[in-house]
């Protein structure tokens, strides 16, 4: 299939047509137009796939757009890949910090729970 409609893309990736139009408004997708109809190419399909993958791993739309714009097969995509690796490292660091924060919060909850149980035991 060389071209796709907006409903084809929405169905394939299980997203709403509204989401696809939003990505278009943000300059991430650039479908051709035939009157009011949007015609998406294989490139648009790949771009949407990359956007959704980026979102799943916690990248912002701006980060996704930056990575997509760095696509340059003539250079072996070196700059894109280097940038992607840097962003992956940054995301890992954020997740590691969040994990530490969650573990600290769990300890706080454990302490609060123990104090509540102790206080209840004293009232009996």
Brief rundown of the structure:
Residues 85-122 form a coiled coil. The protein is mainly alpha-helical and 124 residues long.
Describe it for me?
By secondary structure, this protein is mainly alpha-helical. It is 70% helix and 8% strand. The chain folds into 2 domains: 1-59, Multidrug-efflux Transporter Regulator, Chain: A, Domain 2, CATH 1.10.1660; 70-124. It is built from 5 helices and 3 strands, in the order βααββααα. A 3-stranded antiparallel beta sheet has the order 1-3-2. Strand 2 (32-34) and strand 3 (37-41) form a beta hairpin. The longest helix has 46 residues, at 78-123. The N and C termini lie far apart (73 Å).
Layout of SSEs?
Blueprint: E1 3-4, H1 6-13, H2 17-25, E2 32-34, E3 37-41, H3 42-56, H4 61-69, H5 78-123
Antiparallel strand pairs: 1-3, 2-3
Helix pairs in contact: 3-4, 4-5
